[in-house]
């Protein structure tokens, strides 16, 4: 159990710090958009690449936050039925649904990687390559996969402790 | 298995997984993926989920979501909630249930600078609740009022409810936001009427606040609302006049609130971090859900269910208002168990084409849909706002808060009926928008 707890702590800290990196991009995104409006109103011009830069920042903000949102149980789920199940059925059901989630997130990580490494497109104005941002689907998905593995271990632990 | 049977099986499996507690976005993505394999091929289905996630996460108009959410956090940091409450209290405290009325007024004011309904309820829980307790208000009335008042955050723009509806139905988010102004004010008035009516019926619920307030004090207290008013007028006025898009309005609103908080020296590292964390949590939740729903709706569209349902219902020999009533009943029922945004995401692919076939105005229906989302926030057993208040009012049982919030459902139903009879209430402003 000691190793599991240590792994859990490392993964959770990692997803937290990675999310924090993306999180602070909201401030430049906010200021860039305001700057774009001011330049437009005052000089009838736009900041070159403002929209595409915002798009890239939003992608980083969201994709790097995928796993942390799972850590704080922010992805919505319906819990009223499962919370009424017996102490054994509840973790068993959690294991079942977590395995299904792991499966689809595995597909996302795999395909995110495949799409990312084959991407050759660049943005319209600033010619910034899309590939690193598309690869973040695989990175964010992989961290989410790790968070789901923690949930799987916790539910399995609960089930084992409840065995007669 | 024909495509339509495959679609029905898919819908049933999604609901099954959902009630088994699977994260809704993952359930939609999984069933959508398997459905696409069945109706197309594995090669076509494999990249869909990953590419959809990227396209949703990197779509410029969606930047409005974190910006609207962070507006609420920054408004709280800047102390706007407390100032609004002090002003509303001075003006309304002598009315029957005056502190409750002030709470609704504050919620409406806070909703005008915040996109999140739960944030509104959470902010009010810490300010209005102790005050109502001090004046011996019934805990049921006090907590119910805050839970219901919090729902105003969904209807009064800026509102995430309208953004999500606009995203799912490809309607103008600007027009939707503007359409929420009058219905939002109407709902706030209806909530106030519900409080006064309850207190008139049973004065023991809310003893009259003793100290009277002079006119001078009342006028001085108005100073507390100017910041909120300026932010609201700039953000919504700019959208209305076509000066900027909702995304730009969100950025301007958030920056203005950030500057207000900075000038008042109320920005701390901790409060900024908390606001950013809230923004990332809600935005990721919403956009991951939308990505899941998009994958599922590709499958649903291939199964032809939305088109078939629309054709079938259009052929029925009943008034379109009967069908609307049924749709609203489904919303009320689902809202009891599923959170508001998930409910929209799950139902819109089928219900929206139906609404268009029946000839209802899509912007008007947006207002109705958001009102139904609000109802879901306070109906048992899963009303999210009620649980938020339960966190702040630890000595009041959750059942008591649900009972307290229940009378406010009447207000929502009445407003839905009024807006159905007089759609102009919602459509008057958007019809006059510059673009």
Summary keywords:
heterodimer; A: mainly alpha; 6 helices; elongated; B: 435 residues; mainly alpha; 23 helices
Give a written overview of the molecule.
- The complex is a heterodimer of chains A (164) and B (435).
- Chain A is an all-alpha fold and 164 residues long.
- Chain A has one domain.
- Helix content of chain A is 74%, strand content 0%.
- In chain A, helix 2 (26-43) packs antiparallel against helix 3 (50-63).
- The longest helix of chain A has 32 residues, at 131-162.
- Chain A starts with a helix and ends with a helix.
- The mean pLDDT of chain A is 91.
- Chain B is mainly alpha-helical.
- Chain B has one domain (62-289, 302-431).
- Chain B is globular and about 75 Å long.
- Classes of the chains: A mainly alpha (164), B mainly alpha (435).
- At the A-B interface, helix 1, helix 2, helix 3, helix 4 and helix 5 of A face helix 1, helix 2, helix 4, helix 5 and helix 15 of B.
Largest sheet of chain B: none
Q: Could you tell me which chain pair has the largest interface and how many residues each side has?
A: A-B, 60 and 59 residues
Strand percentage of chain A lies at: under 5%
Q: How many structurally independent domains of chain A?
A: 1
Q: How many domains make up the 3D coordinates of chain B?
A: 1
- Cα-to-Cα separation, first versus last residue of chain B: 47 Å
* N-to-C span of chain A: 20 Å
Topology summary:
The complex is a heterodimer of chains A (164) and B (435).
Chain A: H1 2-23, H2 26-43, H3 50-63, H4 66-71, H5 89-118, H6 131-162
Helix pairs in contact in A: 1-3, 1-6, 2-3, 3-6, 5-6
Chain B: H1 3-19, H2 24-39, H3 42-45, H4 48-57, H5 64-77, H6 80-92, H7 98-111, H8 117-134, H9 139-155, H10 160-169, H11 173-179, H12 181-201, H13 215-221, H14 226-240, H15 246-263, H16 269-303, H17 305-314, H18 320-337, H19 340-357, H20 362-378, H21 384-392, H22 398-421, H23 424-431
Helix pairs in contact in B: 1-2, 1-16, 2-16, 4-16, 5-15, 5-16, 6-7, 6-13, 7-8, 7-9, 7-12, 8-9, 8-21, 9-12, 9-20, 9-21, 9-22, 10-19, 10-20, 11-23, 12-22, 14-15, 16-19, 17-19, 18-19, 18-20, 19-20, 20-22, 21-22
């Amino acid at each position: 159990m000691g190793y599991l707890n240590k792994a859990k702590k490392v993964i959770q800290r990692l997803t937290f710090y990675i999310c924090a990196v993306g999180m602070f991009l909201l401030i430049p995104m906010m200021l860039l958009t305001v700057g774009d409006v001011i330049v437009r109103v005052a000089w009838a011009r736009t900041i070159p690449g403002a929209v595409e830069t915002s798009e890239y920042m939003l992608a980083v903000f969201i994709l790097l936050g995928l796993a942390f949102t799972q850590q704080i149980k922010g992805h919505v789920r319906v819990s009223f039925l499962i919370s009424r199940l017996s102490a054994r059925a509840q973790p068993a059901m959690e294991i079942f649904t977590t395995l299904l989630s792991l499966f689809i997130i595995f597909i996302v990580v795999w395909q995110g990687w495949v799409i990312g490494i084959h991407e050759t497109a660049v943005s319209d104005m600033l010619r910034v390559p899309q590939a690193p941002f598309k690869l973040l689907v695989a990175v964010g998905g992989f961290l989410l996969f790790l968070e789901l593995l923690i949930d799987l271990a916790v539910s399995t632990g609960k089930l084992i402790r409840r065995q007669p | 298995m024909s495509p339509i049977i495959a679609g029905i099986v898919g819908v049933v499996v999604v609901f099954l997984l959902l009630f088994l507690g699977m994260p809704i976005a993952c359930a939609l993505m999984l069933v959508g993926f398997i459905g696409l394999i069945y109706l197309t091929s594995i090669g076509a289905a494999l990249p869909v989920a990953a590419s959809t996630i990227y396209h949703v996460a990197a779509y410029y108009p969606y930047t409005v979501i974190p910006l609207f959410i962070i507006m609420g956090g920054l408004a709280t940091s800047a102390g706007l909630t407390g100032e609004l409450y002090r002003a509303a209290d001075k003006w309304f405290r002598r009315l029957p249930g005056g502190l409750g009325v002030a709470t609704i007024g504050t919620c409406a004011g806070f909703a005008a600078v915040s996109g999140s309904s739960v944030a509104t309820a959470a902010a009010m829980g810490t300010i209005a609740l102790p005050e109502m307790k001090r004046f011996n208000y019934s805990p049921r009335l006090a907590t119910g009022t805050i839970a219901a008042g919090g729902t105003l955050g969904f209807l009064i723009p800026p509102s995430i409810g309208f953004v999500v509806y606009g995203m799912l139905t490809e309607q103008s988010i600007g027009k939707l936001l503007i359409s929420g102004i009058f219905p939002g004010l109407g709902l706030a008035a209806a909530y106030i009427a519900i409080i006064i009516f309850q207190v008139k019926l049973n004065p023991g619920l809310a003893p009259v606040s003793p100290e009277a307030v002079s006119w001078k004090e009342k006028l001085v207290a108005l100073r507390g609302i100017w910041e909120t008013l300026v932010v609201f007028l700039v953000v919504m006025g700019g959208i209305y006049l076509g000066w900027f898009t909702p995304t730009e309005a969100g950025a301007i609103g958030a920056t203005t609130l950030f500057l207000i908080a900075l000038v008042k020296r109320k920005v701390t590292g901790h409060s900024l971090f908390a606001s950013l964390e809230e923004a990332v949590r809600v935005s990721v939740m919403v956009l991951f859900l939308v990505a899941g729903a998009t994958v599922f709706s590709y499958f649903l569209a291939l199964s032809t269910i939305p088109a078939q349902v629309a054709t079938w219902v259009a052929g029925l020999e009943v008034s379109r208002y009967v069908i609307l009533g049924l749709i609203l009943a489904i919303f009320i029922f689902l809202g009891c168990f599923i959170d508001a945004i998930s409910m929209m995401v799950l139902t819109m692919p089928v219900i929206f084409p139906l609404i268009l076939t029946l000839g209802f105005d899509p912007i008007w229906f947006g207002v109705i849909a958001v009102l139904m989302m609000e109802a879901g926030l306070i109906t048992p057993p899963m009303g999210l706002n009620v649980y938020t208040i339960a966190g702040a009012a630890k000595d009041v049982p959750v059942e008591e808060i649900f009972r307290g919030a229940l009378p406010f459902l009447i207000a929502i139903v009445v407003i839905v009926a009024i807006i159905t009879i007089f759609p102009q209430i919602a459509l008057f402003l958007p019809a006059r928008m510059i673009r």
